[in-house]
Amino acid sequence: MLAQRSTFSNRADAGRQLAEALLASDLHDPVVVALPRGGVPVGFEIAQRLAAPLHVLIVRKIGAPGHPEIGIGAVVHGREPHVVVSEEAARQFQLPPGYIAAERDRQLAEIDRRRRMYLGEDADKTPDHAGRPIVLVDDGVANGVSIRAAIARLREIGVSSIHVAVPVAPAAVVELLSQEVEQVTCLATPERLDGVSLFYDDFDQVDDQEVIRLLKLAREDMARRARSDVHRGE
């Protein structure tokens, strides 16, 4: 776990700083897995620096009743959908009976829609990450429910290791994540996090078209690298 400067000019800057920190880690043939939307520009920079493929794992927040901006849980698609609920956050709200299950189903439908939009004809194919080291990336972590749901899904796939890489997260959440994965790289670990956006000069929303564009660029880059490797081997 590293502590460096606490502000980033934008997500690309945060990704480049994380990439430099990750170069000191013992990562052999990793896959960078980013949480869209905001994690994709961060993950793109890391993937470029590590010469690694970039993939996405779509996690959807479960918002509090009447306050959808407040995340009390998260869900990620899989053979059995994984739901992680922050008990501390949930205790602050009166949850109606069946609320979590209904929100889970609604968010799973949105996950399916986004998968088809981001991945096109590959949407129904499950990437084979089994046995691979994973660098799991987001643009920041507040209470950890989204990234913990992603960790559960990656464990189900059978990856060899998970290295969480995020620009900023509360110290207590970093400690919790450190117990669930092989390594955590976090550049800013405040005791209290009032908002991820406060650590960025530019934290404009990332739209779907930007996610699609960066994924396409990453695929093209990996294809160029593969062709170059073939030519060197001839």
UniProtKB/TrEMBL annotation:
Domain of life: Bacteria
GO molecular function terms noted in the UniProt entry: glycosyltransferase activity
A Pfam family hit: Pribosyltran
Residues of the Phosphoribosyltransferase domain: 11-172
The keyword Transferase is assigned to this record: yes
Keyword Transferase included in the entry's annotation: yes
Keywords: Glycosyltransferase, Transferase
Record InterPro entries: PRTase-like, PRTase_dom
Protein name (record): Phosphoribosyltransferase
Species this chain originates from: Neorhizobium turbinariae
Source species taxonomy: Bacteria, Pseudomonadati, Pseudomonadota, Alphaproteobacteria, Hyphomicrobiales
